[in-house]
Amino acid sequence: MDVKRRTFLHALGLTAAGTLLPGCDKEIRRLVPYILPDDEIVPGVADWYASTCGECDAGCGIIVKVMEGRAKKIEGNPLHPVNQGKLCAQGQAALQRLYNPDRLQGPLRRTGAQAEHRFTPVSWDEGLPELADRIRHTKGPVIMISRPLSGTLADVVSHFIESVKGSLYFYDPSPELPLRAAVRQAFGIRDLPAYDMAEADYVLSFGAPFLEQWLSPVSFGIAFGRMRQGRKNRRGHFVHIEPRLSLTAASADRWLPIRPGMEGLLALGIGHLLLSDHRSSLPAGRLPAYESLYGGVSLDDVAKHTDISQADIKGLAKSFAEADCPLAIGGGTACAHTNAFESHLAILGLNSIVGNINRPGGIRRYQSAGLATHPKVPWLSERRIKELAQALEETDQRPLLLLYDCNPLFSAPPTVPIQRLFDHASYIASFSGSLDESTVTADLILPDHHRLETWGDHVIGEASPHRAASLVQPVVVPLFDTRGLGDTMIDLTRRLDGSHSGPDSFPQLIKDRWQRFHTSHSSRAHEPFQSVWEDLLQQGGLWESTVTEQRLHLSSSAANYQPPQFDGEAVDFPLYFYPYPAPSLGQGRGANLPWLQELPDTMTSAVWGSWIEINPATAQAMGIQQGELVRIHSRHGSVDAPAVHYPGLRPDVIAMPIGQGHTDYGRYAARRGANPMTILAPLFDKKSGALAIGATMVRAEPLHVPGHLILLEKPGTTAGGGSDLISIERPRSSNART
Amino acid sequence: MTRALWQSFGLISLATVSALLIGLLYSKGSADSAAQDQQPIPFNHAFHAGELALDCRYCHRAAHVSPTAGIPSLRLCMGCHQNMDTTQAGSMQTLLDHWTRKEPIAWVRLQRLPDFVYFTHERHLAHGLQCKTCHGEVTRMSSTPRAATFEMGWCLSCHQQRGASRDCLTCHK
Asked: Which residues contact B161 (CB under 8 A, 6 or more apart)?
């Protein structure tokens, strides 16, 4: 019989489907009732619990749908002041972190060499004394690297690290440190101020990707919506300046593809024009400082170096000066260069010149809820990593490293000697919930609960007009033998003190603090706390709509503009390298969640992998085809990824999303794509020490083999017709029919 | 046999197998068949609901407040059974064993609607329907076969008779 290959495959497919069916069938054909009924559970009816999202540090309020004791869906909390019922993809996907098959199910101890990645389960009663013992007898310093923490947990962890005379650092791959440093210099405050975008009518963004992943993207999205469409007869104008057409740039009225690293120079040019051609709102005493900052540039130079024409710069200055509520914000790519601090001072200064500080639509500052008392924890900048590693090696001190929910071995480039810090450690313990690249090096892992299984709170900072603190409550019983970090810290403190003083448990501590907080702050202070507490849990936290504004004071804007430095000679490395955080993967933290992997990138529609973006003109000149594997070389290494022809990119730039290229971190993340951080040069912003991730020059080498690129939509094809994922049969055209 | 005959024979058998498989797929997707009423414990509805005249909702407690009727917890069974003589029937010993081991009984599901149908017991009971309208005279059934097809035509005919909504989105949300 002549069976064609196609026929055979069809038959095979059908048979395979047939054999799978009984397998799927088994589970749903069983009805397993409770042994003991839970009075609060009605089968088939959902309970919704309010809590706070923990996927990023914005602290959006969530409500979680729980059926028969299982969390089924996460939505935004409509009552919460930050996100007002909205929630981003990462927040939605937190459910897959809860049920992730690669989650750590209990404490683990490493057996064998570090590179073997072999662990054996231990009990908490073995793990906790072991760690306490190690801390007690360590000769080197105790260093804890944690994701940024808030509220009571931050206090408990700070207190613990203080009690063992260690150092606690917050680590975040993109904490916008140059911006923070500039804010500190300009206004003398430690926290970021509030950008009142909702009330602005002209927003000039220097690279801030506020609609993607910047600071608090959901609240910015809401504010942006209000600025554009939420006010009668007033639609705010938005200009975005960035070398690449990001999602934020695509939402702008105008996108200006600036030369990388020149954001500050452009701000100086605009400031120069504001001071010379337009009226400034600065008090007379302050004017000379600003004149010396902005006066030293010539418009010719600015236009030449930024690649933005003089007419455009004049137009920007004019619109900015004439707007009722202009607002200049900088972030993202403006934080990615060696001169980022000076750039931000120049950008922030534009706001001061037009006098929109402490004004609706400008830069403001509010009083935050007085729940947290912890001392400010320093950030672990990349330069700090380098200094720490060097200092420890020179003094031959072997630190005891503690890690919590951060992955510096993945997100810091190898040229920053983070690996040396880890190699030099005498002992590493991790409290993270999954085996990422950093946790896999640990000697002992005491995994934390998932956010939906634990207690906690989050203080909304001074950037929010609401004095708000939101609560984290367990919505499901912990699935595994994990323990909340707060309780682990309290337990360790007790073991090391040998005392039984202090709080009984972390949940009790939270409740006690909220009781004190409530008595001193709430308008319901006279009511019994238990009923207030239940209301607080039901609502998701405490927020007061009465705005207490703190005035920002201009302290100093003095800075000499520095041109950005780049690593690599133009002859060998002619292209700027522009790694940017993939909007859905959150610097790689989301890479182990299939929902985020399969979420098409908004600009290229790529899924489940890495790619590099190259301007079609550059690609044509270099003979690089769409989808072809390209090797990107810098002075420090190379990465391979398929090429996407992307017209929304300067021809002298190669862009690549950050987030893939994990070697560990579970089945969905590991061995997928490439990590652009591995080829970055160790150049830092001079003031804040943050890595200048845009300061590496590269060259591209086509490898003449197709790469693994999956797109939902293929560029250049008819609408909806070209895709790796969907095939649509279109009716034949009318010509063909006749 | 000629090559052409072999070919047509092959095609016919392929078509038959495909038809069977597609049939299987269809039957799996629609309401369940009654053929699998092999429960881990031979529970007798005729005795409990008929002879003892227990109200349906004594055991299926969620029916009037939830989309699903609910299956009684083991404790509810034991509420009556813990003081009974287990020698009467072997199956009662099985029930007791489950209780002692604290192991739930995995009942075989007989009544199931496909995922694309939104059905709620609550609404139907609120409109005064009796359990037996859909589930038959359970009080006289020792085992529990499916009393109706639970297919769309069957649903619609009742909706039509009673003047209930026949909008697609009522059931297919």
From this structure: none
